[in-house]
Structures are given as C-alpha cells and as structure tokens.
Design goal:
The complex is a heterodimer of chains A (251) and B (666). Chain A has 9 helices and 7 strands, in the order ββαβββββαααααααα. With 251 residues, chain A is an alpha+beta fold. A 5-stranded mixed β-sheet of chain A has the order 2-1-5-3-4. In chain A, a hairpin with a 2-residue loop joins strand 6 and strand 7. Chain B is built from 19 helices and 20 strands. In chain B, strand 7 and strand 8 form a beta hairpin. Classes of the chains: A alpha+beta (251), B alpha+beta (666).
C-alpha cells in the first residue's frame, strides 16, 4: 500500500506548529497504525531528520497513552478502538491520512502529537477515590454487590483515561471522563459514603482545569475507545444536582 | 560478600506473624521527618507509595509516563490469585504456597513465598474496599476461575481487565495521598542513576523528559518498583517503554542481579506477522479454562493450513492432536506456562505448526461454546435446541467471560476466534529474575529496596499465572510498609539529605556525560535497529531453549553488537529537549549489558528448571531435568566493571517444609 501522511509537527509548547507531508511506499495491511509510524520514523532517522514524537506504550489498547486524531477522529475510524489497535487494513492504497494531536485548552501540546493530560490526574486527585487506608478491611465477601450493579460499575471503570472524549467534544468537555469515574465509584456500596462530595469536588476541579461544558453533542460516546456510555453523564448530573441543591456537603 | 536472606527463625507458617510483631518500628512523629523515594507507579510502586504516604512518610514518587495510571500492570488480563477458599474446593494458604513453590520449580525461597500466600487474602479485601469492580455471582459474592498449575479456582478477576482495575485502585489510593500532600508526584521523570552516600542509597538522578534537564532528588531510602526486563528480547508482551535502566543503574552501583536468566515465555500470544512488528500481544491464560490447544496430527494437514489451502475447522476431530491433554492428563490445558510453551514449540519444531511462519498452534473454543450453549439453553427452558441456538447462546457466554480478548484478537488478526480457532505461539512475557533482595525486600545496598517484578524473590524459575498481580500488591500494600521500617528505624536522627552533596554532583555529571556520549557518536544506525538485533540474538540463543554452544556464541555476538552501538549509533536531537530517541538509547545500552549477564547466568546454570531450559539437560520425554545437588541456589551477580567478568554470589535455597521432587503435571 502507498499512503500519504499529513502530520502535525510542533517542536514544543511555544512553537506555532504546522502540517508536514510524508509519503510511504511499503505499508502492509497487517501493520498497526503505530507500526507505520515506526517505519516512517526509521526512515526519518536514516535521513538524519527529527522523528515524529507520538505517545504510545502498551499497544494493546489498555494503557490510554495514545493521543492521535486520525482523519478528524480521535483514535481513528474504527469504533471502540484505540489508535494502537488500529490496523492498516482499515485503509486503502493511495489514501491520504491526516494525523494531529488531541486538541483542547486543558491538553497543551508538548511536542508534535504529544499532549499534557495531567489535568485528568488532578481531577482524580480531587475526589476520584474511596478514602480507605491500607489495612485490614472487612472480608471481601461481607459486602455483597448485585451482579448488575458490579457490572455497571465495571463498564464505567473500563475508562482508560486517554482523553479522546475531550478531543472529540466541540466544547472540549471532560464530562464523559469525570462521569465514568463518579459512576464507577458511586454505584458501588463502598463508594456511597463519599458520593456527594466526590461529584461536587470532581466537577469543581474539571471547571478549574479549563474544560468546557457538556451540551449533549454525544461525540464523546461515539469516539470513546472503550465505548463508555453517556448514561454516565446523566448519572453525574443527577448526583451533582442532588448534592448541590440544599446539601450541607461543602467542597 | 556473604548473602544473608535474613529469613526469620521459627516454623514456616509463623515466621511472618512473629517477625511483624517484633520488628523495629518508626514512631509516627519520626515518620514525618523521613523521606522515601518510590520509583515506578505500577501495582508495586503505586501501592507502596500510597501505603507509605498513609503511614506518614514523605514520599516522592516517579514515573516516566505522563500519568501514574499508565504502567504496564494495567495490561494484565486474567486475574489475581488469593487463598480465600470461597469455592470450598480445598484451597488454603499452604496450598497456594505449595503450588507457587512447585510452579517455580523449587528455585524460590520458602519463607517469602509463604508470606505471599498469607497476605493474598488481604489484597482482595483491600481492593474491594477501594472499589475494584471484580466479577461477581448472582448472589453478589465474588466469582473466581482457574489458572495454570493449580487444581483449585482461586483466581479473582474483572473480565479480561483485571490489571487495569487493580492498578486504577492503587492509582486512586496514590492520588488521594497526592491530594493530601503526603506524596509528591513526578510524572515524565526517568530515573537514570542511584546516588549513594556513605554506602547507603540516598537519592536518584532523574531526567525531566519534557525539558530534558537532569534533576537531583534525595531521600532516606529508595524503593525501586520498576518492573521487569522482558523487552531485552525486543519482541515481548511488555509495553514499548518497559526497560531495565533504573534497576541496571543500581547494579552498576553495586546491587546484585539475581537469576537474570529466568524469563517466562507465555504460551498463548498472537504469533508474529512481519518484520515491522513492534510488540506481541498476549491472549490471557484464563482462556485455557475453555480453550483446547491442538495441532494437526498429520504434517500434510499442517502444511495445507500454512499454505492457506485448509482451515483449522476443516480438520476432523480424529486428526487433531490435543497435545497438552494427551501429555498432561491431570492438568490438561492448564499446565504451567513453561510446560505449555515447550510443548507448543516441540509441535512446531516437528512440523505441525499452522501459521505461514510455521510458528503457531491452535486454541479452540468450539467445545466450550457448545457446552455453554447447551447449559444456557437448558437454563432458559429450551429442551431441544438446534445447533444455531446452541452456538449463539454459547458465544454469548464466551463474550461475557472474555469480553475484550476476542475483540482484541479480531482487531489484530482480522479473524473471529469464536468461528475459527485462535492461532497462538509462545512469547516473552515476564522475568522472574531481578534485583536480589532479602526477606525485607532490601537489596544488598542498605536503604535500597526492590518490589514487584523488579525483584527476584517469589516466583523461582517459573511464575504461575495470576501471581504477578498478587506479588506486586503484596509487596506494596502488606510487606514493604512494614519491612522498610527495619532500615528507617536506624535513620530517625539522620537529617534531611542535601542534594548539594558531592555524591549528587558526581552522579549527575556522570549521567550527563553518558547521555552526551550517545548523542556524540553520530553514526548511521538507529537505536531501534540495535534493539531489534539484540532481541533476535537473545530469542534465538537465550530464549525458550538454550545450550552451552549457542550461549557462548551469543555472548560474543552481544559484545560485538555493543561495540558497534558505541561506534555507529545515531541519536537525533539534543539533551535539553523532549527527545524519545535519547531515552531509548540509554535503555538499549543497559539492555545490552543485562543481555550479556543473562547469557552468563544461563551458561552457569547447568540444569533445566522452569523457564530455563538447557537442551543438554532433559529427560527422554523432553521434560526439564533439575540438578538440586548442584544448583539449588540463587545466583546473584555482582557487576565486575567494563570488560570484566561478573562475580557470582550464591545464596543456597534451603527447603524445610516442602521436599523438592520432580515436577509432574501428568
């Protein structure tokens, strides 16, 4: 396969950035999208040029490190798939593919396709946990959790914190990410104790980080590589309203 | 140097309890004055940093990732073992201990493994309290499943994403301590050297990967939780950035590397498809609960499949060799990883492989789909279900149990493994070897501790499935927070360590010189190309099967490759910027030094045990032949200096409770 890539190049946070065009002649359909980048980078190094910086790690679709927008879609065209799990058989010979970083005010570009997503960490630090110290809690089976509840919690917990939801949203809202964490914990009996405080603190931090508001575009759900449901956003809104109105919980 | 494992006296089952009640403690007000550095935020690091912060220590925690949630623990799929005996199937602490010792082919310390089994139950309790959404039964209680090398169902799981859920639990606990100010978190910082002051570990030199600046950090003690070194093989199931640098740099400062040749080859990975391949993807061992491993009996069938003239499902039942069930009837498809890997390799070597490369066997779910389909049909009151109904219902059960694994397989290969058998082949997955530590998880350098995959301590020569998550969390939550006190109790009057000490300046300038060295070679070959070549040498000669002749040859090849690296490497860019190629250069340089040591260790160990299979030492049936007289010891290697031989230190393994026998899964 012959592929033309238009890739965003930006030396550092201060650089203005621009698209550069690269032509690849020997792409095979079994290659992953990132392996195509490996091949391109090897060629660039051979020419003593600067390889394209892109983040990746597990290449199994679970670590959430990749942060590419491919042809206008975070993680590319395949539903429920991270960029690292995308394979070239999804593309055709002669295609031109445009690759740029996740874009959002809260995710500043560090270099080429690499962005700073530490805002997500700070949101979790604001309340995305259950306050339990390491020690000797009660026996795991002393707290039965209905299977459906455990599974709903698990579905929300499947979030890999990649930030595709933010990149997909025209408002760069982080509501899907925040609501997934709130749902994961608030659905479980262990998480109920701090449910209201958690919802309020995390929403507050999300606003402080400069993420936009949710206006029900639902692009986040469509682009989420783990197919996290926007039902979680509805759940967060309920939790937030009920905790904010007439509540004594202060954050 | 005399190696002292510091194993407490007394009966095996009482050692940990008694020791815990008598070990030195650090009072709460003193903990506030002590600093601890934790490097790595996987299960072992995040759990340790969070727990130490909760106790009151001032923790500085480091990861080279953009966030502490990304470490490769996250990719663990199948589950975590614990001796809860919720199934009432005869499990116990002793049985988990015994399975692990036997699974490790009698090359681990009894006391460490018993402690691991003892704390295993608390891990599950802790994780549930943190909100880890484990799989549950309809009654609301926790579900478990089987893993290799055991005859009980003690593996707790969260679909095929157990590692992710456990890591997020630990990350949440860590995040809480960060918010409370007890842990100072440094993302995108890579440890490049250990700083020692008066013979004790007192700090690290780390590179800020965004600015490229070298930074100094001091503490009263340093904990490494930096994972394993499987990427020395280039192709492995490890994440792309997993590396040995932090651990290896401490070896260069005098820490001992124990049993480096013990590497685990996992039997069920997606086979290699081309030269551009960057990594291999694991298919969880949990699939062997339901997947039957086979290869065609007839070589002509195998050849037809390789050439695309036949498919797996075209081979009639009587022409299939379910070789694990045939060779190991007692454990069947659930034999330990080393045994299953060798059996698959033997089938392929004999010409029965089914991928175009000849290097793959089948894992088939047809029988399980039918069994589950019938059972589900019966539960739904369908008494004479037709084949399509059975298949549809059975596939649904498989989806519920393994969810993302089949989807992942399809994304990578383009095939639906519910319709046609999965193709699998062994790949490097885990490293049992690691930094030598005593019972306190302290290395031979005072104040330097190692936890999780980074140390050598619990899995002997072969790790059982679902035991890595158990060990990482055991070390971080329930062992290190106690045992680090044995060292820190002696440091309560040591003031805060200054980073202005000459030792810090010296380590920083050495690190700078080393990195500038990579940049100044200005040759022609990329780091990646050297890494691939190193990987090929290691896999060919120090992989699933080894012998003295090949190892001797490989050592020379690695040395030659190192020389070429030093004269023909090209690293673009500069030191003071975001420069992933420079990061890789430092890691690959360390992999080469480690690779040579692995070969030396494999040559020294004239026996076969667990993942270390020397072809000279095997039974007539091709099983590993151990030599307990000669090699029932931990081989801990001291770095000898550039171009000098490493020095071997032996710690004899003494078995007081179990009697090492020939490991049989027949």
């Amino acid at each position: 396969m012959k592929i033309t890539l238009k890739v965003w190049r930006q030396k550092d946070a201060k650089d203005k950035g621009r698209f550069e065009t690269y032509k690849l002649d020997n792409v095979t359909e079994h290659m992953s999208f990132l392996e195509m980048f490996d091949v391109l980078n090897e060629e660039l190094i051979q020419k003593k040029e600067t390889p394209i910086a892109f983040e990746h790690d597990c290449r199994e679709g679970i670590c959430g490190t990749c942060s590419m927008v491919i042809n206008g879609r975070p993680h590319g065209p395949l539903q429920g798939t991270t960029a690292c799990q995308l394979h070239m058989r999804m593309f055709n010979d002669g295609d031109t593919i445009v690759v740029e970083p996740f874009r959002a005010r809260a995710f500043p570009v560090l270099c080429d396709l690499v962005v700073d997503r530490s805002a997500f960490d700070r949101i979790i630090q604001s309340g995305g946990f259950i306050s339990v110290n390491t020690g000797q809690p009660q026996d795991a089976n002393s707290l039965p959790v209905p299977k459906e509840v455990a599974e709903a919690s698990f579905s929300a917990a499947a979030c890999i914190g990649c930030g595709a939801c933010v990149a997909a949203c025209p408002n760069a809202s982080a509501m899907l990410f925040v609501s997934a964490k709130v749902s994961h914990l608030n659905l479980l009996p262990q998480g109920k104790v701090e449910a209201k405080r958690r919802a309020q603190s995390m929403v507050k931090q999300m606003d402080l980080e400069g993420f936009g508001n949710c206006s029900n575009v639902t692009a986040c759900e469509a682009e989420c590589p783990k197919e996290i449901s926007i039902k979680n956003i509805a759940r967060l809104n309920r939790e937030y309203m009920s905790s904010a109105v007439g509540s004594e919980t202060e954050v | 140097m005399k190696l002292d494992g510091k194993i407490p006296a007394g009966a095996l089952a009482e050692k940990w309890t008694k020791y815990r009640s008598s070990m030195p403690l650090v009072a709460p007000h003193n903990k506030l004055r002590l600093d601890v550095i934790v490097v790595g935020t996987g299960l072992a690091g995040a759990s340790a940093a969070a727990s130490l912060g909760e106790l009151g220590y001032n923790v500085k925690c480091f990861t080279f990732h953009d966030s502490p949630r990304r470490a490769h623990s996250i990719a663990a799929q199948g589950g975590i073992n614990a001796a809860k005996n919720y199934r009432n199937d005869g499990d116990s602490v002793h049985r988990l201990f015994y399975d692990t010792i036997k699974g490790g082919d009698y090359r681990a310390r009894e006391a460490n493994v018993h402690r691991l089994a003892e704390v295993s139950g608390s891990i599950i309790d802790q994780c549930v309290a943190q909100g880890v959404p484990f799989a549950r039964e309809y009654g609301g209680l926790l579900d478990t499943r089987s893993f290799g090398g055991t005859q009980v169902q003690r593996t707790f799981y969260a679909k095929g994403q157990t590692g992710q859920q456990l890591l997020i639990g630990a990350y949440q606990a860590l995040s809480r301590q960060i918010s409370l100010g007890k842990v100072q978190m440094y993302n995108r910082h890579e440890m490049l050297d250990l700083v020692m002051v008066d013979g004790k570990a007192r700090g690290i030199i780390a590179r800020n990967l965004v600015t490229g600046k070298l930074e100094r950090f001091s503490a009263h003690a340093v904990v490494l939780a930096t994972g394993g070194y499987g990427n020395v093989f280039y192709l492995s199931t490890n994440a792309m950035t997993c590396n040995v640098t932090a651990a290896w740099r401490t070896v260069r400062r005098g820490a001992l590397m124990a049993n480096p040749c013990f590497t685990q080859i996992h039997p069920t990975c997606i086979p290699v498809s081309g030269d551009y391949q960057s990594k291999l993807t694991l298919m969880s061992e949990s699939l062997r609960n339901d997947g039957r491993v086979w290869a065609p009996k007839k070589k002509e069938d195998a050849q037809a499949i390789r050439e695309g003239r036949k498919k797996g499902k075209d081979i009639p039942e009587e022409d299939r060799d379910y070789f694990l069930e045939r060779k190991y009837p007692a454990f069947g498809n659930l034999v330990p990883r080393d045994v299953a890997s060798r059996a698959s390799k033997a089938m392929c070597d004999a010409g029965h492989g089914v991928a175009p490369t000849g290097l793959a066997v089948f894992m088939d779910f047809a029988a399980a789909i039918e069994r589950y389909g019938r059972s589900r049909a019966s539960a739904q009151g369908i008494h004479n279900p037709d084949k399509d109904t059975i298949t549809a219902l059975g596939e649904k059960v498989i989806d519920e149990k393994y969810d993302n694994l089949f989807a992942m397989y399809e994304k990578i290969t383009g095939e639906n493994a519910k319709k046609t058998p999965m193709k699998i082949y062994p790949a490097v997955h885990y490293t049992m070897g690691g930094l030598w530590v005593d019972y306190n998880l302290q290395t031979n350098i005072p104040g330097l501790f190692a936890t999780g995959e980074c140390n050598f301590s619990d899995h002997g020569a072969n790790r059982l499935g679902a035991s890595a998550l158990m060990q990482g969390l055991a070390d971080g939550y329930f062992v290190l927070p106690y045992t680090i006190g044995t060292f820190l109790a002696g440091e309560i009057s040591t003031p805060r360590i200054s980073t202005d000490l000459p030792e810090f300046a010296a380590a920083e300038s050495e690190t700078r010189a080393r990195l500038l060295g990579f940049l100044s070679v200005n040759g022609k070959q990329s780091v990646e190309s050297f890494h691939r070549r190193l990987g090929r040498i290691m896999w060919e000669y120090c992989g699933m099967a080894r012998n003295a002749e090949g190892l001797t040859k490989a050592r020379k090849m690695v040395q030659d490759l190192q020389a070429e690296f030093q004269s023909d490497l090209f690293v673009p860019g500069t030191l003071d910027e975001f420069n992933p190629e420079l990061e890789k250069a430092a890691r690959v340089a360390d992999f080469m030094e480690l690779g040579e040591l692995m070969i030396v260790d494999a040559l020294n160990r004239n026996e076969s045990c667990g993942g270390h299979f020397r072809t000279e030492y095997q039974t007539e049936e091709g099983e590993a032949m151990r030599d307990d007289e000669g090699y029932a010891y931990v081989a801990a290697w001291e770095y000898g200096g550039m171009g000098k031989e490493p020095v071997l230190h032996r710690e004899d393994l003494i078995f007081e409770t179990v009697k090492p026998t020939s490991r049989s899964y027949k």
